[in-house]
């Protein structure tokens, strides 16, 4: 029997569940491999471990899925949607075609990921079971025989089932169906049993009485961090990422994840970072167990610092960067580094805020505008060809007479990047109007040859 | 120590009440005698909040005001945090104003509120040379928070005011807790003996200075070390003219 088929096989008509001999008849010379469910499960487990970089609570959802609890972790990846796109992109790069969905319950996310039309599905926060109403019955995670039986009774989609009285359905199809429906609605909790790497440094604290107040949580965070830092010191390590997992009384997990720009072992700083996130923890009826794990660690040895007697030490700002990073996201805090190119919009590259200093700078022989428009805006000009600056130009409905101008600064297209830029040319001019406002204009094309550009004028920046 | 006039006595009493005596009195001079003379303490106060906005179209694009802020930041020591909502600042120009690529850390925040929160956090930390935030609205409460965060540290806080529409720039008249308030407008550049654009010039208006008077200056824009300059023809003004001016103003 065919267990799985790739895109090429599906294209020639092979279907999952088909008999192997039939498939071989359909496609001569078909490459077939024996199914190995044990190895598949192991592979899925490995993938789940890899997914730990996206969220702290991850579990393999056999046979073909992985479930992540993203609450408390998406801020590090620039929001939920950006996180999903990044995840799918990373998987695609390693040759895995994946579908993903975010929803409030495991059941709804499971259904949307597998049966939604698009490969990325986002259910808005606070949704109910109606997000999955249009999906087929298999999306409920019920046995095929049960789905078949329901279909015989005239049920087509999940939406048909939601309003039905439960008792007759349970009587006929067993408890499993009712349980699945309740899980979809979120009335029945479905805890995720997360995978845990063996060698991770973690500390755990169980409470005799469940805790819930923010101050209490903060106090125990402080205690856990102290223990963890002592452990890290023993190993000579510093942490780059911390996961705090709070197991609630109703066996659901609340996770908080903080990232650091450089390895840290400072109790005060780590406590501060975690305590900033307390408001994202929903304690429910109380927290029973708190686990604090250093999921990414790097060696951190004691360093000798310069004595202030000899020279002034540079103040350390990694603590500040960490605080800001956990507030606005890892991608929103950066430094800009020069790129060796003449095309202005490509001459700037984002690097990590704490990346080593290169000392490089941009060539300074031409003045550059302090504000660069994200895309050049077309302007109407009166200009002599081929190499005169415009005599006047109209931008955003205001006509300006050019009093003084400087240029042209010719920028050639980068033919090694794109074929379309083979002969492309831009001539940049710095133009000053009568009021003294200075603008950066360019003409696409060299003014003589039509193939070098459209010969239209654009405004690209504003000088200070 | 005996004060010369009752006004000095009063000033001392007020500053004692404000608790400013305990704070560091260090300033960052502009290096231009004309300007530093007008500023209390002889320069831009460190550990304080300052406001900068552009005049005319500069209120919207904030091009000249950004360079002014970059020039001030370049002359401080340590790293500079630049909080923006729209990332349209062109880093090569900032580097040309003396603030190298290695020194500026950008924070891209979604809204004004986050920008202000990030600024406050950074000012409170105190290890940065300057903290620049591009905001449209700056309420009295927000500016007071920033000013309190900056006090006691050596960081300069610069609120770079920038609005979406010209009409919203009226907001700049509202009172804030900033130490000084500047408006930078562009002027026609210096004359060159050949066709071309010379060194840019700004009209730098000191609209408000706490314990100081307002003034305006016509200056040449920041050079590669972030220093402003007085145009040559103003420096070499004939002595007679200067004397006449003094006489007229008393």
- Give the radius of gyration of chain B: 19 Å
State which percent range the strand residues of chain A make up: 25-35%
> What are the segments of chain A in which pLDDT stays under 50 over at least 5 consecutive residues?
none
- Please count the beta strands of chain A (DSSP E, at least 2 residues each): 16
Sketch the major β-sheet of chain A.
Answer: 6 strands, antiparallel, barrel
CATH architecture of chain B: 3-Layer(aba) Sandwich
Measured between the Cα atoms of the first and last residue of chain A, the distance is: 72 Å
* CATH class category name of chain B: Alpha Beta
Strand content of chain B is 15-25%
Q: What overall form of chain A do the CA principal axes indicate?
A: globular
Main β-sheet, spatial strand arrangement of chain B: 5-4-6-7-3-8-9-10
Q: Outline the biggest β-sheet of chain B.
A: 8 strands, mixed
Protein name (chain B): ImuA family protein
InterPro entries (chain B): ImuA, P-loop_NTPase
